[in-house]
Design a protein that fits this description.
- The protein is mainly beta.
- A hairpin with a 6-residue loop joins strand 7 and strand 8.
- The longest helix has 14 residues.
Amino acid sequence: MIELGRKNKLEILRDTSVGLFLGDDEDNDVLLPNKYVPENYEIGQTIEVFCYLDYDERPVATTLEPYIMLGEFRLLQVAEINEFGAFMQWGLEKHLLVPFREQRDKMKEGQWYVVHCYLDHRSGRLVASNKLDKFLSNDTLDLREWDQVDLVVTRQTDLGWEVIVNEKHKGLVYFNEVFKTINIGDVIPGCIKTIRKDNKIDISLQPLGSRVLEPAANKIYEIIKAKGGFLRLHDKSNPEEIRDIMQMSKKTFKKGIGTLYKAKKIQLEEGGVRLIAE
């Protein structure tokens, strides 16, 4: 089955004057226009392409990399507005439509919005919406605390940053859990910190508990090496200075330093920490 809005691995069936026809194992085929045909290919070879509808509403394949695919949430820019809605740049020739009914507020040309790409079953077209909540639910969660998750940052609140978790759920990263610069639209990894009784999800941007020790120690070790073997930070350093330089909390920094010290990788000096020559 050839899926619109996703990447498909298809077989090259035949070469024509307009491009290559590609097919799946269910006898469906789709055109890869000449401008996307690779320089070297063979009939029978498998090629990965993205499939969507062209200007004439016909399925077509491309080797271009879209900024968003079916079921994803991503930050896109409005290319133009017309009587049908807002058209977003998504890396392909034909822009992605956000109908007026799917705009939380009236979109403006040139502005950036986090949108969700879905298949409109009435028209059969890929469209987008920035009414994000209708595509998210925390009613049923297949998550556990400590799970590593993928996040999309959607907006800033009084408490922290709202994020989309694994393209399905809503979560929150509290400001005191943020030790690096993040922005709306960022796609970043995270970790489930807490699942509350009402199924609200608290997110950490770094591994939790004892699991933070090894990654933190490795990060500190690499930074000390990059700085010539000496780091002008120690357990008495200002927490803000540690956060700015290391992008981690003072507590995490101290644990990482402790791990390196016990492993005899560093020695503690008055002005900082120094690598021990191996």
